[in-house]
Every structure is written in C-alpha cells, then in structure tokens.
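Protocol step 4 of 6: record predicted structures for both targets in the notebook before any analysis. Target 1:
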Amino acid sequence: MSRFRLASLRKMKIAQNKIVALTAYDASFSYILEQAGINVILVGDSLGMVIQGQESTLPVTVDDIIYHTRNVVRGSDNVFIIADMPFMSYANVKQAIENAARLMAEGGAQMVKLEGGAVVSDIIKQLVERGIPVCAHLGLLPQSIYHLGGYHMQGRNEEHAKQLMEDANTLQEAGADMLVLECVPAELSKIITSTVDIPVIGIGAGHHCDGQILVLYDILGLTQGKCPWFSHNFLSDTSSITTAISNYVRDVKSGVFPLIYQ
C-alpha cells in the first residue's frame, strides 16, 4: 500500500473530512498510529522535551530528526510523514535546502515543517522550487518561545490577528502545501482555514481547522508536569493505548475533539 499523498489531504479539506495527525518518534508507535487510522505523523522537535528530557525544543538537531524519522518510516506503510526542521536549521536559504534535502533523502520524510511568518516565505519558495513540500507553522512558535515569553495564545488583538491572516496568505503564495496553526483563537483559525486553499491543521486553535494534531505523549498522559490546556489524556478513558488513539481519531473525525474537551 502506498503512502498517503498531499493530493489526498487536499481532497479531505474540500470534502470537509477531518485530517487526524499525531506526533511519533519510533517504529512501534508509528505502527500503532497507522493501525488506529491516523492520517499524518509529524516527527516533531517536541522529541527534545518528551524523549530527550530537554527544557525546550531548541537543542534538537537535524541528525536527531533524521534518526527518529527513519524509525517512524520503518514502522508504517501508508501514513503521511512530516519532519520538523529544528531550531536554526533554516537560518538561510542554502542551509534550509541542505537540511530539508537530508530530512527527505536520509530520513524518508514526505514533507518538512518550519516555523515563521512572511520572514520565511523566500525560504519556502526556494524549497518548493526544488521539489521539497513544505508545511508552514503560525501562531505559537515553540522555537521562538524565549522571544514570545511563554506558551500563550497568539492573535488575540486585532493587529496580531491581521498579521497572522496576512502571513497565512503569504506563505501559501510562497508555495506552502499545508499550515499548522498553534494556540490561535477559534474564530481567527476559522477565517484563516476558510481563506486559504491548503489544509490547515490546528493545535489549540479550535474546531474549525481542517484537522487536528497533538503530541502523542500528551494524549497518553505521559507528559511530565502540567499537560497543555488544549490537549486531553485519552488513555484515562481506557486501559488500551491502541483504543486511546482510536478514540482520538474518532473524536477528531466526528468534531467532538476539540469542541467538548476545551
């Protein structure tokens, strides 16, 4: 069976068939997620915190992402796999091209994800022109957490909301094939989702997005300390990891998550 393709994700947006995504970092969980019906796996730089025990995602390297992406690829046959570009791995166009190429050629990713607004539009354009699909990321940017001053909702005031809408359109025009919106008010994410043609995946961004993504360890209650407000421990409702993930898929597809959980 061939892997999920971008064209299939675009069709899901048009059909209003919710896209279900989770992070994963190894072959065993990759297999379980695929069996449960997950459409997209993100090999996220969140591994720095949940796997490596770092205080943030910043210490994660390209080699780290390649290693974990390889494992995820080995454990699955048909999910769509996105690899995060770590902090400062795309500081300029040359660096971005070299690192994105490695994530695809060595890691086996089908798409790379990078954070930022219009400032990264030229980098996205250059990657896309070289055949590298890109997922953009707006709203709360974990790689900029020290600049932002913490994990707070973004786009609450009119000026910032307008900037996020402009950035979304700019990144789409640059060639981004997907967009992650993190910690953005539901009404703003609704406007952005309906404005752009590319699939929009939300995390703490309400139920209007084309799909949802969470960190795997959060939905299994394995996160140390306080779980993000926008997540839910699906394992608390069952004794089976497989059932917990299947329930997440069910609830995203039906629209129950995140609507009644937040």
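Target 2:
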Amino acid sequence: MSKYFPPKYGSGNFHCPYCQVYASQRWEPLRNVNLSPHPLRALVPGSELNPIMIDKAEVKSSCCSHCKQTTFWLSEKMIYPRGRTSPPANDDLPCEVKEVYEEAANIANQSPRAACALLRLAIEMVLKFLGETGSINDSVGNLVKKGLDEQVQQSLDIVRVTGNEAVHPGVIDFSDETDVGMLFGLINVIAESLISQPKQIQNLYNNLPEKARKAIEKRDGKTK
C-alpha cells in the first residue's frame, strides 16, 4: 500500500477526508462566520444551544485541489467533516475484519481508546483467519516458530500491547488520535505481510507453466 498522509493542520498536502486522494490544499482564514445556520455549528461545543460567532483567527479552511471540497479547522483541529482520518483498510483483509476496521476508523477521533480496543479485535480476527486459535500472544509465538518476519512480529506485539493496556488507566493513554493512527498503519502492515504478499506470490507461482510447476513440486518432494 502507498503511504497515507492524514489531514493535518497547515499541511500543504494530505489525503482528503472527502475523496481520499492525496492532493494539495489551499488554506484560507474565515471571516467571522455565523455558525447558527451552518452544519459546523453542531460540531462546536455548546453551539447547539447558543448561536456563536467565531473569530477569523480561530477558524481556517482548507480546500482540496482534487474534489474542491472544504475542510474546516478550529484551534488547529479538524471539526468538519467529522469523517475519518485513518488510512483505508488493506483490500485483502477479510470482509468481517474490514467492518471492525471501519468502525474503529469512524470513532477514532471521538474515542481513541475505543478505536484501539476495536483494532485489537481486528488483529485477533486476522490471526484467526490465518489459522491461529489461541490468544494474540500465543498466536504470535506460534507464527514466530513458523518463521514470522521479526518486523511483522514487532508490529503484532505493538498492537497486542497497546490494545490490551490502553483499557487500563495510567498504563498507555490514547488521548491523541496520532497514536491510534499508528495502529491503523500497523494493521495494514500486518495484512500486507501476512495476507497480501503471500497471495501475490501464490498468484505468480500459479501462473508459471504447468511443466515448470510440476518440476518444482517434484524437486521439493510434493509429487513423485
């Protein structure tokens, strides 16, 4: 997968929350926008009860050069749209894992800890898809015995530890969506290494001439 650049305040380029295209952004200040008739009003704390005016120094907008949609920022945080800021799920993830991934993506900005717990569930589902039935720790150990790449092992352990410890106050505090963004990236790294790459290699092997495949299988003792 290509690298994902989440929306970031002041950045000249990022993946647009509307079209998901990596595109340049045109930044402009807003000039005393009355939020009472605007959808932004519902996204500012307290504004659902009291129509407010926001100073131009506090609100800025970024316009995507690709889809021409506008994103609004308050105090350097994206407040509209309220959509995801995580990378798309790896296409080769099983459908049920994608559903959990998308659920985590939809709540990551509002509740990083809840998103973290969902991502831990997602990795458990990936391991089950790969034929592992024990705990994440046992599954990782079993995969290591099968020759799991050390970096993928570390990625799995990061998800295991953060997903498990984030529910315990004072251990790992996921108060910043940047930390959760790291976990989304790790899920896709794991999927790329354990699902996508083996799939691609198998497809390439299957496309070899039948005679060549039979010779290889005979060499490896798979056929006589």
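Step 5 preliminary note on target 2. The helical segments are 95-107, 112-129, 136-145, 150-165, 177-206, 210-219. The two ends are 40 Å apart (CA to CA).
Proceed to step 6 after PI sign-off.
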